[in-house]
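Please decode residue identities from the backbone states below.
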């Protein structure tokens, strides 16, 4: 258990460091922002911030001229209270094996997401279905709509303010497929808005009143009922909070047995978080945990609030929503956000073995972008319309895969030396 414990220590210590770096870096040189502001690019504002504070954040996060977004995608319910701890785990079953991999027993307890079959069957149906109605609200930005489809299902239709958002959303979805973590993302298809086309005929009048350009490519993401908010896992939450409210002097090294002290439910959630952090690092998605870390500068308790674009399904599994900041937008803003994304990745030294394996394969094959393109073209009929990553973005993707691989090797070496 020593190794597992130290891996946990590394994880938590890394987040301390991150919180401290975030605070030091962000508090310097800027006026104290309005308290109580929580904003993300999906626009969830717990309290309306002053225009100035909002502008500061938005200016950093988005393109000029981009309107502010509407209410969050599915914050229908407040975050649930912290999950009560299960009885302590028996000593017999360490949560980590081989120094850096989640145990198979833990992985087996991760609630299932969208299976490949379920996703494929919804996508087939959604591509053929007619859009019966379009409603405002519930799907993020004010230009997005919640669509009811003729097959009875619902989908969030996202209209990109610029093409890179829809492209980023679609490519991130297929990259998740390449990494073997796609079950955590709602199935996603591209669609072309055509007021005269059969698919959109029932909502022709709504389309006339919408900001959507005829012929625009939008994304259709399967709607998921009864999602609830997700707060960052306990170790991160506690330490980030301590760092923000009382300064680094309150930070105390955690004992090596820290991971063992976590409940089964917390460990199962951390398994999913480890995939999320790898995914967000590779795609350079700044609009999730990273945007919360950013908000630490004006909201010391932000780590105890809901994480942007991350929700919990009724079965307890995490759902990675709204990935439009990934790959394209994120790569354009690397300089700004990697100071969060990179330490966040470095703070994680326990992985799902299958994910580490995929990363290793993509590293060895040196063709992550080519594999992504192949998958995208195979699975998405409209892949050709939005275009693909530029050569430079393709290189960045490979570099980031390589970086994750190197980091995993580093964790492995560290664990072996204990
Ligand atoms: C969502 O919640 C409502 C009300 O609690 C319930 O009736 C419904 O069955 C739930 N749907 C799913 C898919 O869990």
């Amino acid at each position: 258990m020593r190794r597992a414990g130290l891996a946990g220590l590394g994880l938590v210590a890394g987040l301390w460091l991150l919180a401290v770096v975030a605070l030091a870096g962000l508090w310097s040189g800027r006026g104290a922002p309005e308290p109580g502001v929580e904003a993300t690019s999906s626009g969830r504002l717990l309290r309306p911030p002053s225009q100035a504070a909002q502008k500061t954040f938005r200016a950093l996060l988005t393109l000029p001229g981009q309107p502010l977004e509407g209410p969050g995608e599915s914050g229908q319910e407040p975050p649930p209270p912290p999950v009560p701890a299960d009885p302590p785990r028996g000593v017999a079953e360490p949560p980590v094996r081989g120094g850096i991999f989640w145990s198979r027993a833990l992985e087996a307890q991760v609630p299932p997401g969208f299976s490949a079959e379920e996703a494929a069957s919804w996508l087939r149906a959604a591509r053929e279905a007619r859009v019966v109605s379009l409603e405002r609200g519930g799907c993020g930005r004010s230009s997005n709509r919640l669509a009811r489809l003729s097959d009875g299902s619902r989908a969030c239709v996202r209209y990109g303010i610029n093409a890179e958002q829809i492209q980023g959303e679609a490519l991130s979805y297929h990259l998740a497929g390449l990494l073997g973590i796609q079950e955590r993302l709602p199935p996603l298809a591209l669609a072309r808005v055509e007021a005269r086309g059969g698919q959109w005929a029932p909502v022709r009048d709504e389309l006339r009143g919408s900001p959507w350009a005829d012929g625009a490519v939008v994304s259709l993401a399967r709607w998921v009922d009864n999602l609830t908010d997700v707060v960052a896992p306990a170790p991160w939450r506690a330490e980030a909070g301590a760092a923000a409210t009382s300064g680094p002097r309150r930070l105390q090294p955690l004992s090596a047995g820290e991971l063992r002290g976590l409940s089964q439910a917390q460990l199962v959630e951390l398994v999913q978080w480890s995939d999320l952090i790898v995914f967000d690092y590779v795609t350079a998605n700044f609009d999730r945990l990273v945007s919360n870390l950013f908000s630490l500068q004006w909201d010391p308790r932000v780590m105890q609030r809901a994480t942007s674009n991350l929700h919990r399904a009724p079965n307890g599994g995490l759902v990675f929503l709204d990935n439009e900041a990934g790959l394209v937008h994120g790569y354009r803003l690397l300089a700004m956000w990697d100071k969060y994304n990179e330490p966040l990745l470095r703070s994680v030294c326990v992985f799902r073995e299958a994910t580490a394996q995929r990363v290793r394969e993509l590293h060895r094959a040196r063709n992550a972008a080519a594999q992504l393109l192949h998958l995208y073209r195979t699975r998405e009929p409209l892949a050709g319309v939005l275009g693909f990553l530029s050569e430079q973005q393709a290189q960045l993707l490979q570099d980031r895969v390589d970086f994750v691989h190197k980091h995993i090797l580093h964790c492995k070496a560290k664990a072996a030396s204990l």
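Observation: Residues 2-71+79-107+227-416 form one domain.
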